[in-house]
Design brief:
471 residues; alpha+beta; seven-stranded antiparallel β-sheet; 18 strands
């Protein structure tokens, strides 16, 4: 519990209405989008500037109070759950686009700006910010940076880290650092910018970011390819890339996901196919037309049962919206929805989907799979009920085996959701004991008193590695 004197210090910094400690407010900030993860903070503060963030951090450092930084709370790894109590620092008031620099092709933003607002602001000027996480309508850029968010355009354009040029951040001792800048080249010392991207709020609090922009593509087209067999869909993905075609979007939905999305959106998706690939391309019109023709030929050679090309921008938007609604559609099925993101090399998509299905059947669960086929980032999603403790135990065992299967296939436990609480017990499976010590050393160098987002990324105990006989 924070003393009244400490709360008075915080209110003096951010103002009376921006420091919350009533029970109903604390409950509202005790969870994020991650199922079954919740812990009450002692107070919630809402600073409006870097100076206010700095002063709050200085108070916390002086009294050794944990701080959990929060954006929109849309993350799926428990990353903003205040497991150590203390202060939740919500940055939603720091929501200004500081500058769009059309000469240097950059945008400077505060962390509370919604991702979709960045897209709309720069596209109005003929520019383009490619990262597009599925939660972009509600997620904030600070959260995107903290988790190195991906999205539907990751195959062609990369993830958030590829567009962060510079950061302003407050360290756990209250000092402010600035990294990078409006520069395409900068090798002056360690790359602190890239180190902070994806650090999940454990090293510093980001208060401003400089992001790279590119020219907006002039043409975009979308097609759907339907398959009776998952192996044929996966082979199409590999063949498209092998033919030196890099689509702007290359998404995958399995049959279970297709049926639920169609029931939700009713856009005419066939519900009797095993898999659908949603394929988009952007760029100059002539190149887009050529690529889409070649992609269609590749899909036909791999026995696609139907290929449908969106005829209008409205139809293309409808298809993309349907894909983005997959989680919402699946969430209608049962009280609790657990969305994960095991990632494998794209050549291993078919074996990974087969492994997920085998694990699903063996544990008697309902798991549907969709995701970013082009970069191997799959989202096995379990519909369950948190009140059924026996089933939840089976769900946890199943996901352990799914993570193990991903690693066995050369993959990883998370491609874009982050480690947070949920994946912390499995991190050592991926990086090894030596890798864990290096990461812990970095954490100690930045945050020797473990005040920023404690209890995340590094579990007190790692899970024993699951070994499954798949013969």
């Amino acid at each position: 519990m924070l003393s009244d004197a400490i709360k008075a210090e915080l209110r003096a910094i951010v103002g009376e209405k921006n420091c919350l400690d009533r029970q109903e407010a604390l409950v509202a900030y005790s969870y994020d989008a991650t199922p079954m993860q919740q812990a009450l903070p002692d107070a919630v503060v809402m600073p409006a500037s870097t100076a206010e963030v700095q002063k709050v951090v200085q108070v916390a450092a002086r009294h050794q109070i944990p701080i959990v930084t929060r954006g929109a709370g849309s993350n799926l790894c428990g990353g903003t759950v205040p497991v150590g109590g203390g202060i939740v620092m919500s940055l939603h008031r720091m929501n200004q686009i500081v500058e769009i620099d059309e000469q240097n092709l950059t945008i400077t933003v505060q962390p509370g700006v919604r991702t979709v607002d960045i897209h709309q602001a720069v596209e109005a000027k003929g520019l383009f910010y490619p990262p597009d996480p599925g939660s972009m309508v509600i997620s904030t850029i600070g959260g995107n940076i903290a988790l190195n968010s991906g999205g539907l355009r990751g195959l062609k354009y990369g993830t958030t880290k590829d567009y962060v040029l510079g950061l302003e951040a407050v360290l756990p001792n209250g000092e402010v650092i600035r990294t990078g800048g409006k520069l395409m080249k900068d090798v002056a010392g360690y790359d602190l910018t890239k180190l902070l991207v994806g650090s999940e709020g454990t090293l510093a609090i980001i208060t401003e970011a400089i992001l790279k922009l590119i020219p907006k593509p002039t043409t975009q087209r979308v097609m759907l390819a339907m398959y009776a067999d998952m192996e044929q869909a996966a082979r199409s993905v590999s063949d498209i890339i092998a033919n030196r075609i890099i689509p702007g979007t290359l998404e995958f939905l399995d049959q279970g996901t297709i049926r639920v999305v169609e029931d939700f959106k009713q856009i005419g998706l066939p519900t009797d196919v095993a898999a659908i690939l949603l394929i988009g391309q952007d760029g100059e019109a002539q190149i887009v037309d050529r690529d889409m023709e070649r992609i269609a030929e590749i899909c036909q050679k791999n026995q696609a049962v139907q290929i449908k090309v969106a005829k209008t921008d409205e139809e293309a938007d409808e298809v993309m919206t349907a894909r983005r609604s997959a989680l919402a559609a699946l969430s209608r099925m049962r009280p609790t929805t657990i969305l994960e993101d095991a990632t494998v090399p794209r050549a291993q998509i078919a074996p990974m989907v087969a492994a997920i299905q085998e694990i699903t059947d063996r544990f008697g669960l309902n798991i549907c799979t969709f995701g970013h086929a082009g970069d191997g980032n799959l989202h096995p999603t379990c519909m369950t009920d948190a009140r059924d403790h026996e089933e939840i135990e089976r769900v946890e065992q199943a996901f352990e085996e799914i993570f193990a299967a991903a690693i066995d296939l050369g993959g990883t436990i998370t491609g874009e959701h982050g480690v947070g609480i949920v994946k912390a017990p499995y991190l050592e499976w991926k990086v090894g004991a030596a890798g864990m010590e290096v990461m812990k050393g970095i954490k100690r160098a930045f945050d020797p008193h473990n005040l920023l987002n404690p209890g995340k990324m590094f579990a007190k105990e790692s899970r024993n590695r699951v070994v499954v006989n798949r013969a």
